[in-house]
Structure formats: C-alpha cells, structure tokens
TrEMBL record:
<keyword id="KW-0378">Hydrolase</keyword>
<dbReference type="GO" id="GO:0004556">
    <property type="term" value="F:alpha-amylase activity"/>
</dbReference>
<keyword id="KW-0325">Glycoprotein</keyword>
<dbReference type="InterPro" id="IPR017853">
    <property type="entry name" value="GH"/>
</dbReference>
<feature type="region of interest" description="Disordered">
    <location>
        <begin position="1"/>
        <end position="21"/>
    </location>
</feature>
<protein>
    <submittedName>
        <fullName>Glycosidase</fullName>
    </submittedName>
</protein>
<dbReference type="InterPro" id="IPR006047">
    <property type="entry name" value="GH13_cat_dom"/>
</dbReference>
<dbReference type="InterPro" id="IPR045857">
    <property type="entry name" value="O16G_dom_2"/>
</dbReference>
<dbReference type="Pfam" id="PF00128">
    <property type="entry name" value="Alpha-amylase"/>
</dbReference>
<dbReference type="GO" id="GO:0009313">
    <property type="term" value="P:oligosaccharide catabolic process"/>
</dbReference>
<keyword id="KW-0326">Glycosidase</keyword>
<comment type="similarity">
    <text>Belongs to the glycosyl hydrolase 13 family.</text>
</comment>
<feature type="domain" description="Glycosyl hydrolase family 13 catalytic">
    <location>
        <begin position="34"/>
        <end position="447"/>
    </location>
</feature>
<feature type="compositionally biased region" description="Basic and acidic residues">
    <location>
        <begin position="1"/>
        <end position="10"/>
    </location>
</feature>
Length: 569
C-alpha cells in the first residue's frame, strides 16, 4: 500500500494562537455563523467572494456576537457543485485566495475570539483531482481505480449501469467512462454530479490521505470540521453489487424503507469505523478539534454520529424541516434533545443553510407547499408576504437561540434576507438545474451575494458586479441600512446573542405545565423564560420582565401573533 499523497506545499507559517476559550466543550452551546465564501464579500472586484473579503468583514461576525465561523468549501474546484467538488483538499482555490490568505483569516478570527470550522468533503472528489485523472489513465482493477468505485456495466456490451442506484441530484448514480478518456468503458459511481466521483472508503490509502488532510488544517489553527454527507462514505461493494430495488426513488428517499444500517450506500454501520479513527486525531490537539456531521438520517441513527468517540455532534434536520406549528415544534425539540442526550452530545438547531430555501420565505408558505414547484414559479405560486415572513422568521430565531445546544446561523439571515426565488434561468449556476432537465431550480436563491451597502453595483459585496444577480430590494436589507437602527433585524440578532451569552447556564429545558394552544412556553434557567406565540391573535404573557421580543408587544402588553419574547424573573 502506498503512502498518503505528499503535501507538496511548504508551510512557512506559525500556527495561529488560540485566543478564544480553551474549554474543550466550547462548541456545546456555541453559535456558529456559516459563510458561503463565494457569496459573502469580494475583495478584488471580480464578482466572486474570496478569503480576503471574509477577513475584512470578520468584525461583522464579532459585533454580531457569534462564537465561531463555519467556512463552506474554499478548495480548488471547477464549481460543478458550488465548491463541493474538491480537486485538492489541502489548498485554496486561486479565485478565492491562497494558503497565506487562509492563515491571515484564521489569525484575524482568533484575534477577534472567533473559532474557525471548515467543511470537509470526504464522500467524493472532483473529477479533476489527481487521483481521478490517474484512475482514468489506469487499467480496470488497478490500485488507482480502487481509490474510487469503478465497475463493469450490465448488458451484452456493458452498456447498462451496474445497478439501479440513483443520484441525489437526479438520474443514474453511474457514469460510463468516455472512449477518449479510457477505452475499457467501465462505469464509476457518483452519488451527486458526474463531476464528483465517489471515493472507495474501503481503501486504506483513501483513509490515510484524509488523516493527513485533517492534521493539515488542524495544524493551521482550524478548530473544527463540518463533515459533508457524513452518512455516505461506507458502501456495500460486494460482488455482484445489489440493486436498491426502488429505482424510482433516490437513495435518500429509500433510506427509511430498509432495515437500519443495511442501505447499499447510505448510513451503513461500517461508516462509524472512520469517525472513531478521526476522533483520535481530533483529540490529539489542545483543545480537541470539534466536528459536526451532516447526516440526513432518522434521529436515532443520527445519534450514532454524535457519540463522544466519533464526531461529537450532528445536524438536526428535523427542526429545520418543521412547520410553523406549536405542537410539531414542541415534539421535534423534545425528541431532538433526547436524541442528543442519548449520544452524550449537545443538540443542534438551524433554520437556514446553503442548501435550503431561506426561512424568512419558507416559514410563511402554506403547509405542504412544494418548494421546488414554488421556486419554478419564481416564488409567485403562492406569493410570499415578505413582511409577514420576516416577522415569523424573527420569532423563529429567538425561539431557536433560547434552546439548549449549538445554533447555526446562515449568512444573511441576520439581515432578514428572503429567498431570491425569481432568478432567471440564464443566471442559474446550481448543477441541479441542468441535471434535472430543468425540472428543479436548485439552491442558487439562498446563495445570492450579501448586501453590505444601500448603493453600488453589488450593494457593497464588491467593487464590481456579483456572480448571481441581487434584486433591487436587497438595498433595504443591507447592513448599512440596519446598523444601529432600533428594531432592525440586525440589531435584534446582536441583542439576542449578547443576552444569550449572559443568560446561558446549563443544557436543561423545562416546558411550562400549562400553556395556551399554539403557544410554546419554556424555561431555560431560573432567570430565562421564552414564550412563542404561533397563533393568529395576541396571548397573555406570564409574569416577568420582558428582556427582548421579536416584535413590539401589543398596546395592552400582550404577545402578538408570530412573536417570541424572552422574559426574566
């Protein structure tokens, strides 16, 4: 077995000092701010966000009051999937900067007492990764091909895919090697785009190389890792490969139809060997590096990824997917806390991210709305009342920030940004648009670059335009328009995060013994109570001093509809 790929890059840097808390459990109650690098801030005016732009805007995160920066992929990539097709795991995309720029960003973050978490994408590489290029030049059965999942096709001439496995983005999960690439005509597995060939995690060389990658970034001062599609690494590669038996469904949709741990390529029990191995690396640092799994699996299975000897935390997608309904939210919150407790982890809460419709739009849509159909209608069927959506989003935010565990905030939600649902087809960049034959618009609407100022060609995002068009309405949401303005969404977040830090004590939650229908009433500590009114009319508040509310109280002091209040005793 060969050694891991050599690093090839010198490291003329000193590890950034950890000026924030050295508490090994800092992440358990932290607030993370997700930055999608290409859409946050553009320092060189080319229309694409970059690392220097992030560094210049880190004071925004510091004054906001978050604890950590979560950086989505910044690695060399052809952008077949927004940077999640990685060509080199230990470098920076030249369009976004350099390793020196990365080091400067980490140093500035630590100076501002911000932790740094980066994305790791271990399920697949880019087709432009040197390993895959070598695999195409190599013969079937070679060590180079064994790093990926290559198989002969079915049919008389191998013209059919090896199995009925479906890509998450639509169509077969197999692509046949083109004749001009390799004459053998084998097929390779890609659970996402064809430009993202899946790695073979049964191969020790693959495992060793990722150990090197985790140490590389940890040595540069990174405090933690978000593991992309953490549930997909292990696959049943027994010969012959078995069909899923549900070709009309994607792998994710068929997951719950099979006994736990037996799906051919999702959430297999063997994947946990990888994360137990990674935990040894994380724990070799002081403080230990944290990690969080992106695992789209049922709650009981999700807890396995969050065990202390594995990743330690896992994203809670049930909460993100919950509707604006008191009983549903109470059930999800209760179950999520129990799931996290069973794993010895803290819970996680998130309302928006780079893959979903922003919650300022999503939460106001009627229950059962087909979000894909809504996007295809350019957000007109049904139309969204932005004012009502923002009110509900602000209430949802205060509820989320009152819950025990870690909160993950997506860039721009502190400005109240809605989904940009009416992006023209010619502007779309998400591969889902083409791979679905224009039947799914994709995720570009939540990735539109941020507005920092009320004027300028890209509202302060950069000196020039932006890689995705910003609507004129973004001017009213800009940081400049909200900074210091009493009652603005930006100031609500700042105040809430400062109060949260002061009030936070322990990981317990107690529901009120009695509460009106449609009202969530919970107590975190003896001095912190959160009441959310999800009804269409005002409700009485319990006794206590109102510390903060997502909207002004009614004239008679009652809590209005779609409003959350924090109370102190």
């Amino acid at each position: 077995m060969s050694e891991p790929m050599p690093d090839r890059r010198s490291q003329p840097y000193a590890q950034s000092p950890d000026l924030s808390s050295r508490d090994p459990d800092w992440w358990r109650q932290a607030v993370f701010y997700q930055v999608y690098p290409r859409s946050f801030a553009d320092a060189d005016g080319d229309g694409l966000g970059d690392l220097r732009g992030i560094t210049r805007r880190l004071t925004h995160l510091s004054t906001l009051g978050v604890d950590a920066l979560w950086l989505s992929p910044f690695y060399p990539s052809e952008l077949a999937d927004g940077g999640y097709d990685v060509a080199d795991y230990r470098d920076v995309d030249a369009r976004l900067g350099s390793l020196e720029d990365f080091d400067a960003m980490v140093a500035e973050a630590h100076r501002l007492a911000l932790k740094v978490m980066v994305d790791i994408v271990p399920n697949h590489t880019s087709r432009r990764h040197v390993w895959f290029e070598e695999a195409l030049r190599s013969a079937p059965g070679s060590p180079a091909r064994d790093r990926y999942v290559f198989r002969d096709g079915r049919g008389e001439h191998g013209e059919l895919p090896p199995t009925d496995w479906q890509s998450v983005f639509g169509g077969s999960a197999w692509k046949r090697v083109e004749a001009d690439q390799a004459p053998d005509g084998q097929w390779y597995l890609h659970l996402f785009t064809p430009e993202q060939p899946d790695l073979n995690w049964a191969n020790e060389e693959v495992r060793a190389d990722f150990r090197t990658t985790l140490r590389f970034w940890s040595d540069r001062g990174v405090d933690g890792f978000r593991i992309d599609v953490a549930h997909a690494l292990a696959k049943d590669l027994d010969v012959p490969l078995r069909d899923l038996g549900a070709p009309e469904l994607s792998g994710a949709e068929a997951l719950t139809a099979l006994p736990p741990g037996t799906h051919p390529f999702f959430d297999r029990d063997e994947v946990h060997e990888v994360y137990r191995d990674w935990r040894k690396i994380f724990d070799a640092y002081t403080p230990p590096r944290m990690a969080v799994a992106e695992a789209w699996v049922p709650g009981a299975r999700r807890a396995l990824y969050a065990r202390p000897d594995e990743l330690g935390q896992a994203f809670n997608f049930e909460y993100l997917q919950a509707g604006w309904d008191a009983e549903q939210l109470r059930r999800v919150i209760t179950d999520s806390l129990a799931t996290a407790h069973s794993a010895g982890a803290s819970a996680t809460w998130v309302l928006s991210n780079h893959d979903v419709v922003r919650h300022a739009s999503r939460l106001t849509l009627p229950p059962g709305t087909d979000l894909n159909a809504w996007l295809l209608s350019d957000g007109t069927a049904p139309p969204v009342d932005e004012t009502a959506g923002l009110r509900r989003a602000r209430a949802a935010t205060l509820l989320m920030l009152a819950l025990p565990g870690s909160a993950y905030v997506y860039q721009g939600e502190e400005l109240g940004l809605p989904e940009v649902a009416d992006l023209p087809a010619a502007a779309l960049q998400d591969p889902i648009w083409e791979q679905s034959a224009h039947t799914s618009k994709g995720r570009d609407g939540c990735r539109v670059p941020l507005p920092w100022t009320t004027t300028g060609p890209s509202y302060g995002f950069g000196a020039g335009g932006a890689w995705l068009p910003q609507p004129p309405g973004f001017a009213s949401y800009a940081v400049e328009a909200q900074d210091g303005v009493e009652g603005s969404t930006l100031e609500l977040y700042r105040t809430a995060l400062a109060l949260r830090r002061r009030l936070l004590d322990g990981e317990d939650l107690t529901w009120a013994a009695e509460s009106a229908p449609g009202v969530l009433d919970l107590t975190r500590t003896d001095t912190w109570r959160c009441v959310t009114n999800l009804t269409a009319g005002p409700v009485e508040l319990p006794p206590g001093e109102v510390l903060l509310s997502s909207a002004p109280l009614e004239e008679d002091g009652r809590l209005g509809p779609d409003t959350t209040a924090w109370l102190g005793n």
